Amino acid sequence: MAQLHSRDFEKPIEAAERELEELRAELEEDGSLGSADTSDDLKRLEEKVRKLKEHIFSTLTPWQVTLIARHPKRPYSLDHIGNVFEDFVELHGDRLYGDDPAIVGGLATLDGTPVVVIGQQKGRTTKERVYRNYGMPHPEGYRKALRLMEMAERFNRPVVTLIDTPGAAPDIEAEERGQSEAIARNLLVMSRLKVPIVSVVIGEGGSGGALAIGVADRVMLFEFSTYSVISPEGCAAILWKDGAKADTAAKALKIGAKDLLGLGIVDSIIDEPLGGAHRDAKAASINLKTAILKSLSELKGLSVDKLLEGRYEKFRSIGVFKEDSA
User: 66-316 in CATH: which number?
Assistant: First the structure.
């Protein structure tokens, strides 16, 4: 069985899967795999694995969801781009300073429709993580994304963004090169972009670093993704001076899919394969493709005025509550 870098709460699933694979190997070795005598044993173990996944993943705490969103085997932007889009041609550089590997983007087609796709990219090996800066973009990354979005508007292509970042790069170099201005400009331009925009949180959606490519007509997130103004650890450090209280902070932040949908932060939730996207990346990508196509189909018939009006109202309504007259 491939090593999944299981979280502690996934250990029972991993143990049951190991037991199942060992039984299959034994049956293959003695030539009895597929016989009527052994099918019941296999079915029993398969059902055990399925029920464990259902139980554990239906009772995850917000902090456990955060750990799944950060899972090192979870499909990243380039994984989904390879599975969902055709003819992807990556474009590089912001034409001002340089290229930023933490953001990838370029031209592609989606079931024959030309689109521009942009995503935040983490790395799996230590070398990749350093190269991608752990998915934390610098200003040139956001300016590259801006260049691609403006290109999409010129050629009337819808924009699809894949969000997966703990936040924008917080280092001195990012500040020197204008991090806050780059993020603010993206928010402004995206709010006025005259083509449909669909954004999907595929892992972590952290703070302004996520929102900088997330001002969209449709905002969706995967079932076990998170979207928040700050990480649970950062929130715990500020409120309780103790990063170890991240589990308490995660609950208070309401960073999970159902809470975000209820609050109107996102428009819909994309189902993940049983046991999480890290167990079946291709199945997750199929669900992602279906959701993107549905959203683009709903948006393509809207006039530019209706598109911009709807986008404006969507974000203006976030955080607005009505009190009962009683």
Answer: 3.90.226.10
